Amino acid sequence: MIGGVTAIYQFLILSIVIGGLVLMLKFVFGNDRRPVPDLDGTDFGLLSEVAVVPTEEAANVLVRKLKENGVRATRSRNLPYRVMVFPTDVANARLVLRDPT
To answer: What residues contact residue 85 under an 8 Å CB cut-off, 6+ apart?
Structure first.
């Protein structure tokens, strides 16, 4: 009987410890409430828009100009074409795009 009581107490203590860990992890990490994935192509995550152009060729020219000046850049795949850079490169990208040469 004593061995059975000890096993029950061990099970209860283990259940309380695991339950406490679950509650703590839920409190720390919370629910995953991220928005639904972008299906219309307007959310570019970490990238910031620095230019909008009507043609793919114009977007490619701007991206090439930015890359030649050391700014990491890319463009969107759909109309209107958006030229995008990382937030740390926005100021440099605008300076490069403002230069007429």
So the answer is: 47, 48, 50, 66, 71, 72, 73, 74, 93
Q: pTM to 2 decimals? A: 0.60
Give, in order, the Cα–Cα distances in Å from 30 to each of 19, 20, 33, 35: 15, 15, 8, 15
* Domain containing residue 73: CATH number: 3.30.70.1530
Q: Is residue 10 part of a domain?
A: yes
Q: How many domains does the chain have?
A: 2
Give me the residues of the chain with pLDDT under 70, please: 1-4, 32-42, 101
* DSSP per-residue codes, 35-55: PPP-SSS---TT-EEEEEESS
Provide the residue type at 36 as one letter.
V
**Residue of 74, 46, 70 whose CA lies nearest to 60:** 74
